[in-house]
Specification:
The protein is mainly alpha-helical and about 160 residues long. It has 8 helices and 2 strands.
């Protein structure tokens, strides 16, 4: 709410007010993980979670239940992947931290370098690479970034 007021250049002091964030309560009380999804969609407790077999089977069952619950998704995997996986088909990494621009060049898709080619950032600000590699980014994102850096090294 405060952000919306700030967008229209309205400010009020909340330093002496109690603030309740309903979304924070929701995220705190309703877990957002595979076990919670399995319970929600399949009505079952996930046993042996974090074993690859149990997690893979639960993920498959959740997906099946989602298809049943949301018939508007259809059954065409190509269409579903556009809606739920990679809407523009342009993700370079699975998390979408890097995407392909109109010239099919990987660019960053977040932060101060959003829209900037990854290679340009790595040349001009090598510390950004280390920040990502040492940060809380998905392993696959780090893998794809390292791939770009190695390609740059081999190409001179």
């Amino acid at each position: 709410l405060m952000e919306e007021f700030m967008r229209i250049d309205k400010y009020f002091d909340i330093s002496k007010r109690k603030v309740v964030d309903a979304q924070r309560i929701f995220h705190m009380m309703e877990q957002r993980n595979l076990a919670a999804a399995y319970q929600f969609y399949c009505g079952k407790d996930l046993e042996n979670h974090h074993s690859s077999d149990a997690d893979a089977m639960a993920t498959f069952e959740v997906f099946q239940a989602q298809l049943e619950r949301y018939p508007s998704l259809g059954t065409d995997i190509e269409k579903i992947s556009v809606v739920a996986g990679n809407p523009q088909g342009k993700n370079y990494d699975l998390a979408g931290r890097m995407v392909l621009n109109d010239d099919n060049i990987p660019v960053f898709n977040f932060g101060k370098h959003k829209g900037t080619p990854v290679e340009d950032v790595l040349r001009k600000e090598p510390s950004f690479y280390h920040w990502i590699m040492n940060g809380d980014f998905p392993a696959y994102t780090k893998h794809k970034l390292k791939e770009i850096k190695l390609k740059m090294k081999h190409n001179g």
